[in-house]
Every structure is written in structure tokens, then in C-alpha cells.
Amino acid sequence: MGVQSVGGGQACSSISLCADDFALSPGVNRGVIEALGAGRLSATSVMANRRSWAKGARALRRYAANADIGLHLNLTLGAPLSFMPRFAPTGHLPEITRVLKAARKGDLPEMEIRHEIARQLDEFFEHFGAPPDFVDGHQHVQILPQIRHWLLDELEARNLKGKIWLRNSADRPTRILRRGVELKKALGIAWLAKGFSRAAAARGFATNEGFSGFSQFDPCSDYARDFETYLRAPGRRHLIMCHPGYCDEELILADPVTLTRERELNFLLSPAFADLLRRASVKLARMSPPRLEIAA
């Protein structure tokens, strides 16, 4: 992992800090770009089916040499890019509870989802001018049974084997318990992701090893305290997800996670964040090798 320093000082370990949901709204884009510009993130993942992506892509290109820019595969928010009469008959993607239920039954519409995965990858490339450095998923859909295999098929067909990495949203139960934050959610996702990293490795795709960042998205919670727990018991290639941004009308209409995004952003931009990393002897790092800056 290449290292990006935050706050100076000596570091003995590194983590990847990824802002999810880029392109969800203009306010989210503005916040993520601000955090990238301040050197307070080492990755962000993009919702390529959102209307803020085309404009946001131009702003992201200047950070391609210093941060991982990935696809946030989205099958649960907004409108799909493809025609999905079974999966999204109303023209809007279903809630995660419905997707989970169908995945458990093995009843997801294969061709519709395969086509949507391909369209979102196409949309990423069209506006960014390069393939993603990695793929993760909104509400962790990339780890779900059936979806994980269709995603791996598509990435392999595009000759991306060994060139990009995938987010494993799971961690060891002992590590999760040591952190003590959102235990039910973190343990549930770990159970759903069972076998994901092995399946990815068998197809030639690396994954992170260690994952944290689960939040209850409570605007009254102490995000600085929560973030300190995310640093506990890190894996060898530890990844922390976060959700910074500014609240705007489009965000309010699209997603229930609103005010906490500004609290996260304020913390990431604060001296307290740099001090926390310094005390923990941690630096931010990207998981991919540096690549040349993408032309505007």
C-alpha cells in the first residue's frame, strides 16, 4: 500500500479511508472533494447511476494520482441505468430488505442485474476515462450471493483481473467485538460476506483484509469517539468506510443519512482527526499502486 501522510509524524501502520456515496448529490460531492483536497481521504467510491456523476467525474480526475477512485455498485437507491422490469418494475431500485430476501432465496433476476452491473461500469468509464481502481457496493450489495459471482464474471470479462481490488465488507468476529460499535450490523454483514474474499481470490482479485466504519448514523453521536474505535484491531490491509458530505435538497429527497454526513466531514477536516491518527501511529494509504493523473 502506498502511504499518504496526514498530520505529519512517524507512522508504523497504514489504513485506507474511503468516502462512500460520491455522486449521491452535489453536496456530497462537494464534501468529498474538500476532504480529498485536504488529504483526509485515500479513496472514494462513486454511484455511477446518479445524475451528479458526470459533473463530479471531472472534479475527481485531479485526485486520481493520489487516491483510489472506485465504483459504488448501486442496486438499492434511485433509478437503474438499464431496463429492469422484474427487479425495478416502478423504475426505482428496490430497498435492501427486498434484495436480501431475494438473494437468500436465489431468486434475483440474473440477466437484469448482470446488465445493470455492466451499465454502471460503462458509465464510470465514460465519464472518468479509466476503469475503477476498485469496486464496492451501496449497502454492501457486492457481497451478496449471486450478485458477487455476476460481478466477478463481468470484471473478469473486462480483463480487470489483477488490476483492481474489491471491498470485503466483513471482518473477523473477534475484531468486531473489540470495537464494540454497531455489533449487530457488523456481524450480520460478516455472515453475509462469508466466502467472498475466497471467491474473489480464486478469480484473481485482491480484497482488503480488515474492515470497519459501521455507524448508526445518529446526529447526536460522537463521531470522533466512534472513529477511534474503527482503528482498533486493524487487519493487514485495513479499510474504513465513511460518509462525509454537505446536506442539500437532493440528498434529503434521496437518502435518510443527512446531517451525520456534515458531522463526519467536520471531524475529518479538523485538527482532532490528524491528532488521532498521529497518536495511533497511523497514516492513510491507497490500496492500489499510484497511477498517472487522468486528463480533464
TrEMBL record:
Keyword Magnesium: yes
Keyword Metal-binding annotated: yes
BP-aspect Gene Ontology terms: carbohydrate metabolic process
CDD domains: YdjC_like_3 (cd10807)
UniProt entry keywords in alphabetical sequence: Carbohydrate metabolism, Hydrolase, Magnesium, Metal-binding
UniProt xrefs under Pfam families: YdjC
Names of the cofactor(s): Mg(2+)
Signal peptide interval: none
Domain of life of the native organism: Bacteria
GO MF terms, alphabetically ordered: deacetylase activity; hydrolase activity; metal ion binding
Name of the protein this chain belongs to: YdjC family protein
Organism this protein belongs to: Methylocella tundrae
